[in-house]
Design a protein that fits this description.
With 203 residues, the protein is mostly beta strands. The protein has one domain: Porin (Beta Barrel), CATH 2.40.160.20. 7% of the residues lie in helices and 65% in strands. It has one helix and 16 strands. It has an eight-stranded antiparallel β-barrel. The longest helix has 14 residues.
């Protein structure tokens, strides 16, 4: 009888769902993300130039290492995003940026396949290649780099033991000073919501 009970217990353990994320594992994700800045991004030049920054979509890559079961450290990277800068509907410039984010994330075991997660991290946004256009053509436009917090919310749907489909949302605190011909003309509050979808592999 004891042998039968031990065999039954062993079979039950083998049949039970494994954690999708265990200490020491890595995940690697490839996807697309849309960076959608908030409305009303600030007023430049002494309150005379209201600004609106357009959205941009680019491929992304994420890498996450699990320091504990269900607790991981993730790095987000992407190809450069390019944004249009407008004032009163007229394009006055463009700028490129990269917003790498490093986050500490907790993954919940909701079901065997569905694993929501939350995260909090730090963002560095590097801006470059500012290009003044329209009424500002010929001027030197620069958006300075920014540091800020980032919040992350999403879920993985595991299609097998090694692969998942991910949908996620990030909010990133991006506030950057703007200069025109070397003179500071104000600050833009980008503060985007980043909507992403990706294919995640576990190693």
């Amino acid at each position: 009888m004891k042998h039968h009970m031990l065999i039954a217990a062993a079979l039950a353990l083998l049949a039970s769902p494994a954690l999708a994320q265990s200490q020491g594992e890595w995940t690697l994700g490839f996807g697309l993300a849309n960076v959608n800045p908030k409305s009303d991004n600030g007023v430049l030049a002494g309150g005379t130039v209201p600004t609106e920054i357009g959205d941009s979509t680019r491929p992304t890559i994420t890498a996450e290492y699990f320091i504990r079961d269900n607790l991981g450290v993730e790095l987000l990277a992407a190809l450069p995003f390019k944004h249009s800068i407008k004032s009163n509907g007229v394009e006055i410039g463009t700028v490129k940026q990269l917003p790498p984010v490093i986050s500490l994330q907790y993954h919940f075991d909701a079901t065997e396949q569905f694993k929501p997660f939350v995260g909090l991290g730090v963002n560095f946004t590097g801006f470059w290649d500012g290009d003044a256009r329209g009424p500002l053509s010929g001027a030197e436009l620069r958006v300075k780099n920014s540091w800020g917090l980032a919040a992350h919310l999403g879920a993985d749907y595991w299609i097998n033991d090694r692969a998942a489909i991910r949908a996620d949302l990030r909010w990133i605190d991006i506030d950057a000073d703007v200069t025109l011909n070397g003179a500071e003309i104000g600050k833009v509050e980008v503060d985007p919501v980043v909507v992403g979808v990706s294919y995640v592999m576990k190693f």
